[in-house]
Design brief:
The structure holds three protein chains of three kinds. By secondary structure, chain A is an all-alpha fold. Helices cover 76% and strands 0% of the residues of chain A. In chain A, 47% of the residues are buried. By secondary structure, chain C is α+β, with helices and mostly antiparallel strands. In chain C, the strands form four sheets. A six-stranded mixed beta sheet of chain C has the order 6-7-8-3-9-10, sandwiched between helices. Chain C folds into two domains: 4-223, P-loop containing nucleotide triphosphate hydrolases (Rossmann fold), CATH 3.40.50; 237-374, Beta Barrel (OB fold (Dihydrolipoamide Acetyltransferase, E2P)), CATH 2.40.50.140. Chain C starts with a strand and ends with a helix. Classes of the chains: A mainly alpha, B mainly alpha, C alpha+beta. Chain C: Residues 4-234 form the ABC transporter domain.
């Protein structure tokens, strides 16, 4: 009796069918929410693809299926300036990524693995550099680039991008290196390895996935950069892709070459999206590693 | 005496840090100090070697310019509203993905698309979609009978800030989602099972358990996003480079520096941007700390 | 082969002292075990010997030579880690031979040495596998092989068996003892498991809060613990304790405590005041109420098959464990019983937890020495 009394006081049970009904309603709402989110995040890029394959008047009629007319793409790939900017962007992003990974790995080893008194200070300094606004260093950077004789050259961008990418890769690789068990490194020390040999022979072979995700993040960071690319490059031939697209415009508001811009947008974004989708899990772990444990 | 082994370790650490330190001196510390230095000179960009010291005249010029305060206001409005929306929306989507429902893997992958698209490209795409005459958004609005004519989103001075915030929310909510989701997945599942068994209703589970436990993760995400939003340049510049209604502090400083060639005044403006960002950073970190110590008490 | 000497070795992190002045002499060929509760600094002390962590002050000497500033790899030591720390991307053979490879020894010489060691540890059929393809026990053997191949003067083990399940742990314990008997190298072994310590050690070092509580043979620690801490740490189930008060000023003092405990004992040192007594569970017999030294309520009897543990609650609410080897006294459950033991099995500790020698305890000590001598 007492048992029954307690149960009815705390949980009044409804029929099984009613629970089933509410669960279905809930699932229905969640399914709808998933659909809404998918449309929200994917539709703009889909629309860019649709628009880029339409010609002339088609562009201004809002048909939701692509017309599959690749004229804009053809003219894009016959345009030496656009192709040049693709080459420039690739050169800049690849070089920046490579340099950042090497510097970041070396620093991350010291920060993640060696005990020294100033470690916390160095980590804080790196974090601060990675968040301060690029415009703050613009005047000093302008002078530096001129002094190095790199003005209006893509390599100027490699130098300036290190400001953002090196602290970033250092920070993320430090958290990755810390995830390796310390005993592994102690075993290597007992086996007579120098720090350099530990890094090259023990950690590096194990860090492939971490380096890949960190590298992709650094690549995207440099591929997308706009402010320095706009400021330190003067001529069309040396521009990177984002600036080239940003400065594409018609003679008047009504002749705005939207179709062409959409084609260029789809082209430069497609490799990134493919890369990101392939390495999805690793990228997420790289992005969150730095933030959560930091 | 016996710390020789320890000292050898410290030397090794600095050896590995040397490349980083050199590069940071070159591209961060040196340019930053030159910016601060130029802020006290009357130098012009075409001949930076020809200058004289002018004290704090440049700072006075910036701080008495109504244009400066206008862009500060723009930047703060943009930062606070967009970060607020991103946090709420990001939390909602993260909770959605965290549910065991069909399609969650798809959403998790799809969410990365807006994040991977360059700001310039995203801006151009939305600019096209929001085009007053041919944009698909206006076509939908007219088609659904919500309005009988298209809305001039980007040409209307009172709407354009909304457009900037809208595009920013679209691009950066994924970052929020990922960070909050990672925080969610660190929470011990058994707590929620216990709450379930105890018959705690869903909304209360969210308010009394999920949200308090998630606060540190959200706090870190808000900090990162806010500092990123404060330095926003490309979005507003690409959408409309000279539109006062959306001009940010970064655009203002660069304009003075590059377009007007005023190296001195521009550097002073840049230094003010630095102080602004530092101030907001300290403010947010302070709030997070307070929150944490209040939680511990 | 070598001796190991520590002279006032200390280690602190900032203001947090982990090791607080340790002096220790380990003889050539000895098997020494560091035990203590978690956080007592035993693992840190082992890493100080290894040179994996630099000391804050003090001297570490191996074979009479000061090695305080010598890097770990040059100290002639080998280390077996708790997690084994095998290199996940290398084959078993390369894992074992990596130290030799680092030394720049020729490929063929390495291959022979690796094969010899692997054969000795019965892992020679696994040489091409990766660590993740091995079982826990096999990984453990490879880790030992990696240490063995360097022919070290001193072997260091950091809780090497704690990741194994209990059957395998027993088996590997026997193998490690056999290894020590075969090669006779000095070994230092860290564990929190006192059974491992008792069975493996020539001498045990009991650590607590970064200090050595006592060093001695397993028998010495069991029969003549210096302190209440050591008495409680060595032996399973642990020693029973009860607070007592001491009265009287002369040689012979009167001790009284809960459960009707009262005894007159002669010992020096401690004056009147608070103290405590201890008796091992295996030294107690259950008798009728009023017949033993103490009385308590027999609350519960655990049946482990070959032996039984009886739990008696004393007047001060403390629970004493009695180990019963024969038939369990099930009929006494729920009744008041007496707990009987010989005076010689009674340990008395002063207010600071130091053990006091009473005249009866000499009998136990000499019996222990006698047993020790016969070993």
């Amino acid at each position: 009796m007492a048992d029954v009394a307690i149960r009815s006081a705390t949980t009044r049970r409804r029929s099984s069918a009613s629970y089933r009904f509410w669960r279905r309603v809930r699932q229905g709402f969640l399914g709808l929410a998933v659909l809404v989110v998918l449309v929200y995040v994917l539709f703009p890029y889909y629309w860019a693809i649709v628009s880029s394959t339409k010609q002339g008047a088609e562009l201004y009629q809002n048909a939701f299926v692509p017309a599959l007319n690749f004229t804009y793409y053809r003219s894009l790939f016959e345009n030496p300036v656009f192709l040049g900017s693709l080459v420039n962007s690739t050169f800049v992003a690849v070089s920046t990524t490579a340099i950042s990974l090497i510097l970041g790995l070396s620093a991350a080893y010291a920060l993640g693995r060696i005990d020294f008194p100033q470690r916390r200070f160095v980590l804080m300094a790196i974090l601060m550099i990675s968040i301060f606004p690029q415009v703050v260093v613009l005047s000093g950077m302008f002078e530096l680039i001129n002094w190095l004789g790199l003005y209006n050259r893509p390599s100027a961008l490699v130098v300036t991008y290190l400001l953002a990418t090196v602290p970033f890769t250092t920070w993320i690789l430090t958290t990755f290196i810390r995830e390796f068990p310390r005993e592994l490194e102690e075993a290597a020390i007992i086996d007579g390895c120098s720090h350099f040999r530990i890094l090259m022979k023990i950690l590096l072979p194990l860090m492939g996935p971490s380096l890949a995700s960190t590298g992709i993040l650094a690549f995207i960071l440099s591929w997308n950069e706009f402010l320095f690319a706009l400021t330190f490059i003067l001529t069309d031939a040396n521009r990177t892709v984002p600036v080239a697209i940003g400065l594409l415009g018609g003679s008047s508001r009504y002749e705005y070459p939207f179709g062409q811009i959409m084609a260029a947008s789809v082209t430069v974004t497609l490799p990134l999206i493919i890369l990101v989708l392939i390495f999805q899990r690793r990228i997420v772990s790289g992005l969150t590693a730095g933030a959560i444990k930091g | 005496m016996s710390t020789r082994l320890a000292r050898r370790e410290h030397r090794a650490a600095w050896l590995f840090l040397t490349p980083l330190a050199l590069v940071m001196l070159l591209v961060a510390v040196w340019p930053l100090s030159r910016t601060v230095f130029f802020a006290f000179t009357n130098a012009y960009l075409d001949d930076p070697t020809n200058y004289s010291m002018v004290g704090i005249d440049n700072f006075i010029e910036v701080l008495t310019d109504s244009g400066w305060w206008h862009v500060v206001r723009n930047t703060l409005v943009f930062t606070s509203i967009s970060v607020a929306i991103e946090t709420v929306l990001g939390l909602a989507i993260a909770l959605l993905i965290n549910e065991a429902i069909p399609g969650r893997g798809l959403v998790r992958a799809a969410i990365l698309v807006p994040w991977a698209i360059p700001v310039v490209v995203a801006t151009k795409i939305w600019d096209w979609m929001l085009n007053d005459q041919f944009g698909v958004i206006n076509a939908l609005i007219v088609g659904l009978g919500l309005s009988d004519h298209g809305i001039a989103w980007t040409a209307n001075s009172s709407l354009i800030m909304g457009v900037v915030i809208f595009i920013d929310v679209w691009m950066t909510t994924p970052f929020m989602v990922l960070l909050i989701l990672a925080g969610l997945q660190l929470l011990p599942g058994e707590i929620f099972e216990a709450a379930h068994v105890d018959g705690i209703p869903a909304w209360k589970r969210f308010w009394s358990i999920t949200l308090p436990l998630l606060t540190p993760a959200i706090g870190v995400a808000v900090l990162f996003r806010a500092l990123d939003a404060l330095r926003m340049f490309d979005l507003a510049y690409v959408l409309s480079a000279s539109n006062e209604n959306i001009m940010t502090v970064s655009i203002y400083a660069r304009d003075r520096l590059i377009s007007y060639q005023e190296l001195g005044v521009g550097s002073a403006a840049a230094s003010c941007v630095f102080l602004l960002v530092a101030f907001v950073a300290i403010l947010i970190i302070g709030v997070l700390r307070l929150d944490r110590s209040a939680g511990a008490a | 082969m070598a001796s190991v000497t520590l002279k006032s070795v200390s280690k602190s992190y900032g203001t947090n002292a982990v090791i607080r002045g340790v002096d220790l002499d380990i003889k050539d060929g000895e098997f020494v075990v560091f035990v203590g509760p978690s956080g007592c600094g035993k693992s840190t002390l082992l890493r100080l010997v290894a040179g994996l962590i630099p000391v804050s002050s003090g001297v570490v000497a191996i074979d009479g030579e000061d090695v305080t500033d010598v890097p770990a790899s040059k100290r002639g030591i080998a280390f077996v880690f708790q997690s084994y720390a095998l290199y996940p991307h290398m084959s078993v053979a390369r894992n074992i031979g990596f130290a030799l490879e680092t030394l720049g020894i020729g490929r063929d010489a390495i291959r022979t040495k690796v094969r010899d060691v692997a054969k000795m540890l019965k892992v020679d059929h696994l040489l091409d596998r990766r660590p993740r393809e091995l079982s826990g026990g096999q990984r453990q053997r490879v880790a030992i092989g990696r240490a063995l191949v360097r022919k070290p003067d001193v072997f260091l083990f950091d809780e090497p068996l704690s990741n194994l399940d209990s059957d395998l742990r027993m088996e590997m314990r026997v193998e490690i003892a056999k290894l020590h008997a075969d090669i006779g190298t000095t070994m230092i072994y860290v564990t929190h498991d006192q059974a491992e310590a008792m069975t493996l050690a020539d001498r045990i070092v009991v650590l607590n809060h970064g200090l050595i509580e006592q060093v001695g043979t397993p028998q010495e620690l069991y029969h003549t613990p210096d302190s209440r801490f050591v008495a409680g740490f060595i032996g399973s189930p642990r020693m029973n304790f009860a607070p007592v008060s001491v009265e009287g000023a002369g040689e012979t003092k009167h001790l009284s405590g809960p459960g009707g405990f009262a005894i007159d004992l002669a010992f020096s040192g401690q004056g009147a005041g608070a103290a405590s007594i201890g008796v091992r569970p295996e030294a107690i017999a259950i008798t009728g109420e009023g017949e033993g030294r103490l009385s308590g309520l027999l609350e519960r009897i655990e049946d482990l098959g070959h032996e039984h543990f009886a739990y008696a609650r004393l007047a001060d609410d403390s629970v004493w464990v009695v180990r019963v080897a024969g038939r369990p006294p099930l009929e006494l459950k729920g009744r008041m019983v007496g707990l009987a033991f010989r005076d010689a099995d009674l340990f008395v500790f002063d207010g600071d937890g130091r053990r006091l020698d009473h005249h009866e305890s000499h009998e136990r000590a000499s019996a222990a020495q006698f047993r020790e001598a016969r070993r």
